[in-house]
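hiii so um. not sure if this is the right channel but i have a protein structure encoded as tokens and i wanna go backwards to a sequence. like what aa goes where. can anyone help
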């Protein structure tokens, strides 16, 4: 890619032309085709602050300085994804972005933003000449699932902060934002049928100081809480939808449920928990397997699905110790009633209840790779976090898979050495180079099963990340690298070229106010 162009992720095909085109006070945006007008308004929203230009947006085939054309409609594939291909042309006549649908156009305008001087990302008028180089771009992503996860349970972030984070993902042409909404340390989403989930479950008495492994443990003695009302969730969903990013909500079960059990003790097996958990790690407490608890969780999922229109609903399924079930006479009786042989099969039965309910609602269940234990629900997809083995196994048996191995794409890990110079993290070391070198398509997976690998996803767990500024520090520029890994064909990746483009891309991040790691 020419030095003057620093698009991240790198487009699939780019050819430089002769000349250039300059935007000015009379520049307009003309839109045609289904959904194009909304994309035009989004582009104007992006361009107005730094330029100070009006960028009027019109609908129809009238000639505009920037022309956006959707040539067809968005038709989801069997996994719920749509065609994201686009072409972007800049010449003496102006700018043209074409795609099959509005989603492709939305990806195209993110590349268009990156063709302009980096000051275009500023939120106030800049003194600059808004020149675009003459180019022809033909682009399409390698993977359908290009995701980034954010844990809002261990630490809570405002609606504005979450939306800004989503906007940063959109800039990098990611299409999935996975929100971890509930855990032992806090329940963050309003469920109207069960108000105590947020009245009680959203607040903890204090928060651990230092690392989970430190002894003796110390706490800050400061109450901590927060949750999203359903109206606020709708705001976040709408913000993401305008950027054609799908939100994947996670309600973790049957483990990671202390906050819910404190709010509704009848969900538990024993009265072992006395408060919403104030430190990290894995609790022994899990949901019981009574029909009333199954009904409770279905009620929760009903309200979640009414808020989140995306195809996939995440039910966690990870780190669910079986100790309580092995000790509970009632759980053992349920196993006998159901004809199950062990506690792993009991968890599989639990997840199958959720899978059937989610599928009946026209959605698809996805969970962490522990849901493989005891047998996988027929329509379930797997997010492989304990390495790639679970993903390979699931794909080999015909299940869709998202690769999210903690060794390669967990951004709560340290990112440089010596780690003593870095903020406290959970542990591990995941460098920028390591992220860029990752390939979500396992070599061990046979060719006939490779279509089941939907893509990959980065994770930001926030036990040790209390502020959005810290989230940005841990996420960027590693998210930039992951975005290119998921977009670009493996053989076209070039780390030296990426680093060169990243140098200029950092200017964009600076203008956007992203607190990126200096790396």
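sure thing!! here u go:
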């Amino acid at each position: 890619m020419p030095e003057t162009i620093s698009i991240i992720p790198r487009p699939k095909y780019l050819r430089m032309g002769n000349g250039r085109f300059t935007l000015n006070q009379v520049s307009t945006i003309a839109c045609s085709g289904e959904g194009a007008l909304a994309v035009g308004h989004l582009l104007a929203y992006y361009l107005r602050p730094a330029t100070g230009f009006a960028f009027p947006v019109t609908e129809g085939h009238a000639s505009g300085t920037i022309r956006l054309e959707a040539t067809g409609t968005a038709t989801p594939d069997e996994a719920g994804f749509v065609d994201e291909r686009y072409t972007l042309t800049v010449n003496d006549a102006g700018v043209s972005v074409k795609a099959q649908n509005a989603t492709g156009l939305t990806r195209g305008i993110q590349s268009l933003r990156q063709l302009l001087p980096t000051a275009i990302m500023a939120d106030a008028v800049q003194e600059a000449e808004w020149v675009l180089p003459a180019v022809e771009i033909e682009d399409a992503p390698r993977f359908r699932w290009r995701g980034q996860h954010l844990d809002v349970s261990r630490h809570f972030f405002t609606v504005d902060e979450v939306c800004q984070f989503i906007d940063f993902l959109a800039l990098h042409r990611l299409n999935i934002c996975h929100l971890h909404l509930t855990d032992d340390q806090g329940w963050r989403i309003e469920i109207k049928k069960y108000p105590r989930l947020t009245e009680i479950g959203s607040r903890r008495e204090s928060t651990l100081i230092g690392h989970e492994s430190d002894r003796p443990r110390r706490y800050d003695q400061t109450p901590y809480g927060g949750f999203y009302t359903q109206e606020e969730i709708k705001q976040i969903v709408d913000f993401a939808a305008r950027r054609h990013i799908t939100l994947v909500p996670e309600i973790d079960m049957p483990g990671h449920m202390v906050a819910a059990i404190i709010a509704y003790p009848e969900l538990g097996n024993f009265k072992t928990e006395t408060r919403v958990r104030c430190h990290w790690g894995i609790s022994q407490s899990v949901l019981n397997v009574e029909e009333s608890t199954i009904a409770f969780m279905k009620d929760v999922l009903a309200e979640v699905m009414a808020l989140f229109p995306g195809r996939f609903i995440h039910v966690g399924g990870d780190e669910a110790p079986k100790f309580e079930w092995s000790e509970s006479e009632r759980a053992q009786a349920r196993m006998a009633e159901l004809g199950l042989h062990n506690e792993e099969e009991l968890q599989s039965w639990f997840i199958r209840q959720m899978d059937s309910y989610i599928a009946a609602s026209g959605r698809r269940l996805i969970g962490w790779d522990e849901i493989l234990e005891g047998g996988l629900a027929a329509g379930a997809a797997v997010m492989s976090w304990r390495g790639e083995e679970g993903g390979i196994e699931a794909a080999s048996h015909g299940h869709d898979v998202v690769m999210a191995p903690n060794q390669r794409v967990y951004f709560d890990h340290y990112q440089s050495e010596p780690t003593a110079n870095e903020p406290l993290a959970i542990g591990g070391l995941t460098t920028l180079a390591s992220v860029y070198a990752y390939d979500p398509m396992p070599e061990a997976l046979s060719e006939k099963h490779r279509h089941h690998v939907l893509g990959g996803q980065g994770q930001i767990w926030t036990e040790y990340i209390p502020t959005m500024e810290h989230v940005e520090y841990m996420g960027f520029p590693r998210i930039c690298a992951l975005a290119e890994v998921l977009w670009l064909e493996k053989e076209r990746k070039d780390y030296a070229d990426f680093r060169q483009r990243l140098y200029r891309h950092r200017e964009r991040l600076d203008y956007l106010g992203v607190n990126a790691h200096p790396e």
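oh and The chain has two domains: 13-139, 145-512.
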